[in-house]
Amino acid sequence: MSSIAPPPVAAKAALQYPDFRLFLAVRVAAGTGQLMQSVAVGWQVYAITHKPLYLGLLGLVLFLPQILLSLPAGHVADRFERRSIIVICLGAEALCAASLLIASWNGLSAVWPIFLTMSLFGIARAFLGPAMASLVPLLVTKEHFPNAVAWNAQANQISVVTGPALGGVLYGFGAETVYGLVSLLLVIAVFSTTRMTSRLKPLQAGGVTLERLFAGVRFVRANPILLGAISLDLFAVLFGGATALLPMFARDILLVGPWGLGLLRSAPAVGAASCAFWLAHRPPKNRLGHLMFACIGGFGLATVVFGLSSNFPLSLAALVATGGCDMVSVYVRQSLVQLGTPDAMRGRVSAVNLVFIGASNELGEFESGLTAAWLGAVPAVVLGGLGTILVVGLWAWRFKELRQVDRLDDVQG
Predict the structure, then answer these.
(1) Distances (CA, A) of 233 to 9, 32, 278
(2) Is a pLDDT exceeding 60 seen at residue 210?
(3) N or C: which end of the chain has fewer CB within 10 A?
(4) By CB neighbour count within 10 A (0-12 exposed, 13-18 middle, 19+ buried), where does 247 fall?
């Protein structure tokens, strides 16, 4: 008997849910503000110190709260109402932006106020991440979840495109202009979150125990597909990320100033947003494991091109390519993680995933800053891209189950 294929999911299926639309508004407002702030902070730190090591230390300051608080944050997301967690964390981030506004308004000649404020920002983000990441499956049906992942990624990339570009342009009017708008956007995100009406409290009961805190770690370790997907992203981006060094490239190599830095920061998101739009309308059906490995390899190759380029348009094109490749990888990885995890554990598993993402991003920025201080910016980026390609080969050999994943149905529990 021949089986009848299920009808294709409409490209806008997830948008029929009002709370999911509010969630997208939160992602765009908060994400845009956070990335505007990131551009302003990075430029201020480098302008004050003229040392790439401090750009790396800035990434480390953001990463430490993530690694230290990830397990408690995941447990909180699985125990308490996630909407309330998001409101509290976004409110705290708004206060951090307001603090940077006041400090810049009064004249900022040292980096320690920035590092102190960003460490507090990192604490709020550590608790925000698992709550946000585990919220989407509660807003749409399981059937429409992959479509929601694509729209969520597209909303995120809209903020990644507009945030750095706005931050770079508005920085020309003063850092306080950037921080003022960031504060406003975060307040808008708080208000949008309070309007959600879905039941957003998970089903888990019971108090805090070591067994519950480490349940997410054990779950990931016992699942080679999830472990392979999460760790592949960690080491690929850890070596291949060049974000921390973009102020150095903009100021000293490409000679394009803060507006150019904004464009450089936005370029990966242009590629990512384009791919996210494509994924929402034409999601890949088969050979997802092979697709993920190929795109991460492309990410490493594009990083090498960026490191070797001294031409601004070519550098932008290379960064666009890194964003497009990374977006496909994110789509596959997030779908595998969320669909392969029971709802009662999504907060803790998301926390583990976010630790790996944080390590790949912020710890990668520290690694890039340290390597650039030793070898220079260009060798640091080129060697990092080559390291990413090497990681892809090693993981393809080590995690055969991940490489052989064909469809998302293969991992749904």
Answers:
(1) 28, 23, 21
(2) no
(3) N
(4) buried
CB neighbour list of residue 360: distance below 8 Å, 6 or more residues apart: 233, 234, 235, 236, 237, 238, 241
* CA-based nearest residue to 403, from 388, 413, 412, 392: 392
- Rounded-to-integer distance, Cα 256 and Cα 279, Å: 33
pLDDT in tens, 327-383: 888 777 777 766 666 666 666 676 666 666 655 565 666 666 677 778 787 888 888
Look at residue 233 in the predicted model and tell me its pLDDT. Answer: 73
- pLDDT on residue 1: 38
* pLDDT tens-digit map of 218-267: 777 767 777 777 777 777 766 666 777 888 888 888 888 777 887 887 78
Domains contained in the chain, CATH given: 13-410 (1.20.1250.20)
Within 8 A by CB and 6+ apart from 238, the residues are 359, 360, 363, 364, 367
- Determine the residue type at 198: S
Tokens linked to 137? 């499956």
Burial of 4 (0-12, 13-18, 19+ CB in 10 A): exposed
Q: What is the average pLDDT score of the chain? A: 79
295 Cβ contact partners less than 8 Å away, ≥ 6 residues apart: 325, 326, 328, 329
According to the per-residue pLDDT averaged within each range, which of 147-151, 255-259, 390-394, 407-411 is highest? 390-394
Kindly tell me the burial class for residue 146, based on how many C-beta atoms sit within 10 Å of its own C-beta (0-12, 13-18, 19 or more).
buried
Token pair for 403: 């490489």
Please report the DSSP string for 25-86 in residue order: HHHHHHHHHHHHHHHHHHHHHHHHH--HHHHHHHHHHHHHHHHHHHHHHHHHHHHS-HHHHH
Helical residues (DSSP H) of 106-223, grouped into ranges: 112-133, 136-139, 145-171, 175-194, 210-213, 215-222
Contact call for residues 53 and 365 (beta carbons, < 8 A): no
Read off the tokens for 112: 């320690």
Give me the helix-helix angle, 18-49 and 175-194, nearest 10°: 160
Do residues 79 and 204 lie in contact, with contact meaning Cβ atoms separated by under 8 Å?
yes
| Residue 278 CB partners (closer than 8 Å, separation 6+) | none
- Which three-class secondary structure state does DSSP give residue 208? coil
